[in-house]
Amino acid sequence: MVDRSDLLLGGVPVARRFGLFNWLGLATFYRREMARNFKIWKITLAAPAIRAVLFASVFGLAIDHENAVMGGLPFMTFLIPGLVTVAALERALESSAFSIVYDKMEGIFGDLAVLPLTPGELVLGFSAAAVSGSLMVAVVVWAALLPFGEALPYNPLALLFFVAIGSLMIGLFSQIAGLWARKWDYITSVQTFIFLPFVFFSGVFFSLDELPAFLLPVARANPVFYIVDGIRFSLTGQAEVSPVVGAVVCVGVAAILWVVSYRLFSIGYRMKS
Amino acid sequence: MTETAENQEAAAATIRAQGTHTPKVCEFGHVNWRGLWTLYHREVKRFFKVFTQTLAAPVVTTLLFYTIFTVALQNRVGTVGDAPFAVFLAPGLIMMTILQNSFANTSSSMMTSKIQGNIVDVLMPPISPLEMLCGFLAGGLTRGFIVGVSATIAMSFLVDFPFHNIAAILFFALTASAMLALLGMIGGIWAEKFDHMAAITNFVIVPLSFLSGTFYSIQRLPEIWQIVAQFNPFFYAIDGFRYGFIGQGDAPFWLGAMVMIGVDILLFLAVHRMLVSGYKLKS
Questions:
Q1: Residues of B in contact with A185 (CB under 8 A)
Q2: Of the candidates A208, A43, A147, which has an alpha carbon nearest to the alpha carbon of residue B68?
Q3: I need a labelling partner for A191 at 20 to 30 A (CA). Which of A8, A19, B17, B44 fits?
Q4: Which residue of chain A has the CA closest to B198?
C-alpha cells in the first residue's frame, strides 16, 4: 500500500513527492500497455505465429530441391530467423502507435500530459511494453516454427540482446509515428510505405548477396538489416557482418530515436492542443 | 392549446399559404434505383476517401511481395509447369489482393456501421434487403476491380504477361471478388467487435488465400492435401485467373467456372437470408 499520509497535511493537500522515478506510476502505465496489447492475444500472439507458419509453408512448398542454399545456409535455416524478426518487429511497431492513436481517437490522449509521469518515464513505459511484447511474440513464433527444422539457438544471450534492441528501435519509431499520426490511416501508411519496404529489403527473406551489386551499400544502410543479421547470427551462428558491428549500429540508432521520442514527448508534439 | 400544437398549426398554415402539398408516400417501381445508387455511391466514397490505404497500399504490398518472392526463389525454383516462376507468381498475387480487398471493403463497412451505430441509416431507408445486398456487393466489386487493374498495370512493368484469355481473367476476377465481398458481408454481420473481424481475416481469409496455389502448383502438395485443396474455392479463383494470364492451370477451366458460380449463388442466397431475417442487425 502507498502511504497516503503525506498527501493530506492537516487536511490541506500537498504535492506528492517521488524519488528519481515514479515507480508506481511507471508500473501502472506499463501494466496498462501490456493489458491493452495482450487482451486481444489471438491477434497479437496467435496471428503472427500463424502468419510465420504460412510463410514458411509456402516458401517450403515452392522450393524445388531440398538442398537449396541461401547465404551459405540451408534455405529454411536461413528463412526462420527472418520470420522471427518480422513477427517481433511488427509487434513492436503496432504496440505503442496503436495505443497512442486509439487514445487520440477517443480524445483521451491529452490525459498522458497530466499524469505525474515525466516524458522520460513515458518513453520508458512505452518502450518497456514494446520490448517485452516483442520478446513474447518472438518466443511463440520461434516455437511455432520448430517443425520446419528449427534448432536451439546458437547463442541465446545474443538472441535476447538482438530481439530486445531491435524491438526497442522499432518501438521508439512507433512512438514517434503515433505522436505524428492524426488518424488511423497515418499509421497504416507508415506500415505500408515505410516499415514494410525497410523490413522486406533488410535480408529477411533473402541474403543481400542476391541483390544487384550496386544496391548492396544502399541495403547495408538500412538499420533493420543489422537487426535481422544479428538475430540470424544468434540462431544459426552465421552472419553477413560481425555481430559486434551490428550491435553497435543498433544501439546507436536506438539512442538517436530515444532522444527524438523524448524530445517530442517533452514539447508535447501533437499531444497538448 | 399546447405550444407544440400551436407550432404545428403555424407550420401547416405556412404550407397552405405557400400552396405546397403535404408530403405523400414516395413511390417507385420494382427497384428503388435512387436508393440503391445512393448506397453504392456511399460505399465507393468510403474507400476513395482513404485511397492511400485502400488502393495505393495494396498495390505497393503486392509489388513488395512479388519482389521478395522472386529475389528469394527465382534461382531456386526455375519453372512451374512451362512458366518461369516470376510469370507464374504474378497473377496469383494480383488475385490475392483482389480477394483481400473485396473482403475488406464490405466487412469493414458493415463493421464500422455497427460499431458506430449508424447501421440504422442503412436499415431504415426504403431499400429492400436485396437492394441493400446489391449496394454493398457492388461496392466490394468496385474496389476489387480498381485494385486488380492497378496491380496488373503496375506488375506488367516487371512481368511480360502473355494475356492468354482476357475473358477468363475478367470472369474469374469478377466472380472471385463477388465471393469475397459476400463473405465479407457475412463476416461483418456476424462479428460484434473489430477483433472478431481481425480473427476471421487472420485465421480464415489469409490462410485460405496463402495456401491456394499462389506460390506453387498444387501438384507439389502431398496427395491427400491435393484433394483437400480441391475443396478450397480460393484455389479455383487463383487457378482460373492465372489460366487467363498464362494459359496454364491445374484444374479444368469449366470446373473452375462452375465452382465459382455455384459458390457465389450459395453465398448470395445466404447473405440475402441473413438480411431478410435481420440476423444480428435488428434486435
A1: 50, 52-53
A2: A208
A3: B44
A4: A43
Residues of B in contact with A188 (CB under 8 A): 53, 57
| Mean of all residue pLDDT scores within chain A | 91
- Spatial separation of the C-alpha atoms in residues A165 and A138, rounded to whole Å: 13
- Convert the pLDDT of each residue in B165-187 to its tens digit: 999 999 999 999 999 999 999 99
Question: How far off is chain A from B75, nearest CA to CA, in Å?
Answer: 9
pLDDT of residue B1: 45
Using CA atoms, how far residue B256 sits from B110, B123, B235, in Å, is 29, 36, 9
Interface check for B78 against chain A (CB to CB < 8 A): the answer is: yes
What was the pLDDT predicted at B144?
97
Nearest by CB to B206, from A54, A59, A204: name it: A54
Contact criterion met (CB < 8 Å) for A47 and B202: yes
B14 falls in which pLDDT band (50, 70, 90)? low
For chain A, list residues whose CB is within 8 angstroms of any CB belonging to chain B: 40, 42-43, 46-47, 50-51, 54-55, 57-59, 61-65, 68, 70, 75, 185, 188-189, 192-193, 196-197, 200, 204-206, 210-211
Parse chain B into domains and list their residue ranges.
34-277
**Domain edges within chain A:** 22-267
Dihedral-angle region of residue A2 (phi above 0 means left; psi in -120 to 50 means alpha; beta otherwise): beta
Cα distance between residue B23 and residue B41, in whole Å: 26
**What confidence score (pLDDT) does residue B15 get?**
61
| pLDDT, tens only, A124-183 | 999 999 999 999 999 999 999 999 987 789 999 999 999 999 999 999 999 999 999 999
Nearest CA in chain B to A76: B72
C-alpha distances (whole Å) from B108 to each of A243, B148, B185 are 44, 19, 9
**Which pLDDT tens digit goes with each residue over A46-77?**
999 999 999 999 998 888 666 788 988 999 99
- Exposure string (b/e) for A110-119, b if CB count within 10 Å is 16 or more? eebeeeebbb
Looking at residue A50, its amino acid is I
Least confident of A56-70, A200-214, B82-96, B171-185: A56-70
Closest approach of chain A CAs to the CA of B117, in angstroms? Answer: 16
